[in-house]
Amino acid sequence: MIGSRLHRFFPVRTVKQLLSLYCTNMKMPLPVFCSGTVIKGFGRGSKQLGIPTANYPEDVVARLPTDIPTGVYYGWAKVNSGKVHKMVMSVGWNPFYKNEKKSMETHILHEFEKDFYGSNLSLIMVGFVREERNFNSLDELISAIHADIKEAETQLELPENNQYKDSSFFKQKPTSDSQL
């Protein structure tokens, strides 16, 4: 919400700087390290949106720090013992779909050959893209997600964000237990 309102008055570069300052002043506890088993979600990521997501169980979502606002985040993710990839994640209730449960839906910026339900997903949330918001149409939602992905790709190339790709967190052996 804040970013979308600021775009009306300031250039995009200025808005990004203001959002970064906003996140710093909010003292968001980033980075956040998270690991857990991938479960089936609502079934709309791939089917309705064309943007597959990996979903965490409720116990992982419940352990998020309470001062993490709902919204879209970027970071790094690894499935089981695979490679580390860029990711973008929605944390919240997804108002367009009127979810009753808070969720963490991760879109890994890599094309996997098959689904990986039951696999361990480890990730590091390193930055904030925007607050959660509602959309007037499915097309508007899809456009926003594509913009979020583009922003995540750009931000993850910055040295301060790229360094997390090689974190020792990803070198730990995956467990079946959910942790945060």
UniProtKB/TrEMBL annotation:
Gene3D superfamilies: Riboflavin kinase-like. InterPro entries: Riboflavin_kinase, Riboflavin_kinase_bac/euk, Riboflavin_kinase_dom_sf. Pfam families: Flavokinase (PF01687). Its EC number is 2.7.1.26. Keywords: ATP-binding, Flavoprotein, FMN, Nucleotide-binding, Transferase. Pathway: Cofactor biosynthesis; FMN biosynthesis; FMN from riboflavin (ATP route): step 1/1. Residues 28-157 form the Riboflavin kinase domain. It comes from the Eukaryota. This is riboflavin kinase. It comes from Saccoglossus kowalevskii.
